Batch of 2 targets.
Target 1
Amino acid sequence: MNGYAGTILRVNLTTGEIRKEPYDPQVARDFLGGRGLGIYTLYNEVPAGTDPLGPENKLIASTGPLSGLLVPGAGKMDWTTKSPLTGGYASASVGGHLTAELKYAGYDSIILEGASDKPVYLFIEDDKIELRDAADLWGKGSMTTEEILKKRLGEDFQIATIGPGGENLVKYACITTDYGRQAGRGGVGAVMGSKKLKAIAVRGTQTIPVADPDRFWDLSHEMYRACKESEALEAWQRYGTTIVTSWCDEVGALPTRNFQQGSFEEGPNLYGQVMRDKIVITDKGCFGCPSPCGKYSYSKKHGVFVEGPEYETIALCGSNAGLSDIEDVAYVNYLMDELGIDTISAGNAIAFAMECFEKGILGPEDTDGLDLRFGNAEAVFAMSERIARREGLGDLLAEGVKAAAERLGQGSADFAIQVKGMEQSGYETHSATSMLLAYMTADVGAHHNRAWAITYDLEVGRDRVAPDKVAKVIELQHIRPLFDALGACRLQWVELSIDVTAYAPMMAAITGIERSWQDLLKISERIWNLTRLYWFREAEAFGRAWDYPPPRFYKEPATGGPTEGQLTTLDAAMQLLDMYYEQRGWDEEGRPTAAKVAELGLSELVG
Ligand code: SF4
């Protein structure tokens, strides 16, 4: 199997049994790898109705056919599971060096099943695989654990860890690697914690077979040259994702005080340029990356080193909580990374609680005296700890904003900014219909990485409701998640504008299977539809109602900034959904039709 290690590792945490299984070449053809292999395995192996935090759930870590090879950013790994946050499909992508190392050790994927009765970590060194005692690591922070294991095992080991958030089953706990890269969304860290698996340490020394090394070498050089010659490279490398902070603030897309508006009066203090001058020490990249977007920083004010903050953290833990000092945001970033909780969901949860506090839904008696008003950095620090340790109000917020609003009532569901139970990432969508639709229909919940459509909104008219705006979302939902199946980074295409169709000949040179770019997109569509069918199987009464936008965006106009007074009516949102379902070949509830299922070759799989 060119491009693949050819072996899947199955680890049963209940029995301690470790098995190596051959990777079915037909599955690799039909689903590529990464998130494709993840949903194929989840759909087939995890019974309907499984408790996400029970031993029957599985956590599937998968590389892709590009991972570990000389392809720009080929260091991406996907973690798929049934989400404890949403009760549906979860897939979290992470960069770094773990992916390449796993393939060098001889494995394309690890399927973790069962649950240990005591803390363990998984040790992998080529053929030597063991579950080792982790009692001394339990309770320790994510990055601290990585440091300890590297000292113990050697710097060559690549390590994934959970922090106290994962141990305490915070519904949006993450998995950390590379001292600050996160598989962040959907609670994959809580599933790892439910299995009492503290860490995975991997070292490998083998090679990955390539079908046509000469052709691959030429195409690889060409791709790297295109990255190097891109006019966008210098600014991207200098600022990484923080390059968009100022743009979002200016156009009214920067979530501010729990998405009440899209522009922050103190936003300039958080811009990428300020951050670069004030706290960034150096750049940091994933395996094989020619354009490292990671910014490694030091906050003198708080005395901590941290990778970041990147844009999403600045948006959700900065402006959205009313914080205006980049050093405070860097410290929140450090705390949440070490505690092992997703900065996007946790930032949302804290901002939601702040709004509840300001509206009198929560009082000092609920916060143990904490003054939980927007802009109070000390309160954000304290709440980060309390969420991860499930203390006081933190225990409620650890369930996510949807569950918290259901418990608190008093109209708070209107400003719980979530879709399908997942908190929305960093784009304010009172008036950005493509981006709003992208959030409504993303297959994990309100996450931007499936379709970053906000620039299209600005280009063609942000509040238009028209078929082209829907088509753009679907186009992006096929291209962007394809990278999560290939095991590579999409940002060289998104930010440096390299030719995305070049990935087709690259895949052919590696795997020996000639497929066009359209063929690859069709596989991505197959994966997308299977994730949708998974939702229908797992979530009660799943359908259109699950695709509704957060009420704030259709009930309350934006309160300030360039979009002040604007909103997207519920009627407009429903029109978008009608067009979306029709263009996708789904029925009026958003279920893939039998014809679409057959067209994508999924009939046998889904029955
Ligand atoms: Fe990793 Fe950023 Fe490079 Fe992508 S652009 S491979 S996320 S460092």
Target 2
Amino acid sequence: MTRLITDYTGKPLNECTELELFNGVLNLVNDAEKEKGYNTGKKKLYYISAEFLIGKLLSNNLINLGLYQDVKKQLEDAGRSLADLEEFEYEPSLGNGGLGRLAACFVDSLATLGLPADGVGLAYHCGLFKQNFENNKQSETPDRWLQWGHESWMRSTGKHYTVDFGGFSLTSTMYEIGVTGYGSKCGKLRLFDVDTLDERVIRDQISFDKKQIAKNLTLFLYPDDSDEDGRILRVYQEYFMVANAAQLILEEAQAKGSNLHDLADYAAIQINDTHPTMVIPELIRRLTQKGISFEESIEIVRAVCGYTNHTILAEALETWPRAYLQKAVPQLLPVIEKLQAYVAERYQEPFVQIIDGNDNVHMANIDIHFSHSVNGVAKLHTEILKNTELAPFYQIYPEKFNNKTNGITFRRWGVMCDPALTSLINETIGNDWIRHADDLKKLEDKKDDPDFLQKILAVKQENKQNFTDYLKNYRGIEVDPSSVFDVQSKRLHEYKRQQLNLLWAISVYNDMVEGKFPTRPITVFFGAKAAPAYIIAKDIIHAILTFSKVLDADPDASKWLKVVMLENYNVSLAEKLIPAADISEQISLASKEASGTGNMKFMLNGAVTLGTMDGANVEIADLVGPDNIYTFGQSSDEVIAHYKKADYVSREYYERDPKLRKAVDFLTGDLMMQNGGDPENLGRLSHELLSKDWFMTFPDFEDYCETKARMLADYEDRESWSRKMLMNTANAGFFSSDRTIAQYNEDIWHLTPDTDK
Ligand code: CJB
């Protein structure tokens, strides 16, 4: 039965405002979702995460529900367009980067595989900040994505819980966003909020009174945590998330007949990074309140919980001073102290204690002791956890450690964002790959078919042209679609080394000044937000923006090299950029990128990786073989050895390599200053590189430049390059999040799929 949008708008579509049309299609989707129903089963997974970077939902839901073509046609027949509606739709900004986008891919796959599961998190009103560029610098403004009210995005369930903090309590409201599975039933994202939130407490840009918890609790994802009030607010947020989750989980399990001793038969919890860690002591607290002994409560909770580690960077392995917990959640501290006593009784090794000698509480240590599973997110990352970062834990609990290499949903990152490639694949091997991603391997049969290779190139050119048009029409940026599109898009962090790419670009410029020009014009795209308090990351953005002005001001060089730093990079922009990419820059310092998931999206869309042997790049290299990836740089073992010996001196490289020296000097040179460069920012960046370079940019510089030059030369053999593209798409099947989720389920959660479609 065809659903008519007019049944939802109540008037002809050509008379509707964009908002009326948007709400009409949204309500149509809501009804279709409810009619499909939800995956159910005795045991349910609660995937608790501080971030769900879901992206725009309308088209994705239409695709998953099989309504896309029909709705598109109804709109077209009335002279309206789905593409316009997509532009009008506001992107929910409930996440920051890879961690949040992974959670969003996971809920899609959970629904698609028929697994009973909820995503559980917070309904931040402003989410992550909106990035603006002024005077070659990033500034931040609130991203008021909920401006049309909760109801345009989520349904209030009418369910409320009480959450106690030190000295006061708050009442929550639970909201739901439907998660449509592809050709299957649906799942739910359950987001908690406080009714007392008051957006007027925002003072200036993104600063606000951090002490008024009732008014600011869910205002921003990641409040500025450069001061103590900001850090304590994180504790309030995290506890609010898990105290709600714990009540929901216990209530639902009991409603299904659990006597709580058997909670693990009814519930599995996945703790996504350390942010939801307090769910462990909170559940133990609640179970003991119900008369279950402390020891048994530990066993129950351990059987329920699994923990995923997403990084070896110390900054993200949260530790909270005991005083913060005492202030925000005093009822939890005695439980955490008892857990510490439990650990101390069994293990003497200082590294594995929960509370250290300085009274800091190590959240990851709680997770590892009191979960039954600890996983890393790529093969290399898990090995580093076992052998280096968490080695003392691995010695105690070898059986807990396992790897679950990340994945991406092929519905959003293939079908939705790359319709041209999708049509070509569908007409070649059918459309089963959308659900059974390994099918893509069949494309390899075409690797020596010149006609097919031509078609792949034509698809890429079409996508580059589309992105070029988008930049011109929506952003006023002109790029050359026949140039090589060289793309690095991800959060701005020193370990991801946008600065390495920048130094390479500066060297290309320096070569041009000496009369050596590239074979073909190159456009280098960066997309990245820097955390507001991360000074050096913002300096790197400033350097990139300033250098792009240097190029624009030079009539000769600008024909050959253009640097575009895209403002406010987000999921929607990624969906346009990734299908247009020729080169996928994955150049983190080996050992530091836990997995990466952008690398997988680019690969699926036929970009060729230029990367270090880090994170999931290692597995990409294994899958595509050495002819279809360009790797360079130190190995993770070498990097780890340098850190251990503390023997890296960046200045030695600077002094030894004239090309590097020239590029580094350029940062603080006249041309940068003449084009809006700020001596303070650029001086600090240069000083950081020369005196520290903690993420070892310089040792990899030469190899990076040589490898990139080889890659650009190979790009000129168009047929051979298109074979590389094909081999990347054909071997991307392993990186479907359906595979990842199936593995989590088999090894950790043991949920029964709801096959009653
Ligand atoms: N990651 O995005 C974040 N935020 C954190 O706080 C810690 C890690 C990223 O998680 C992704 C999903 O697992 C990884 O692919 C990525 O390497 C990691 O940086």
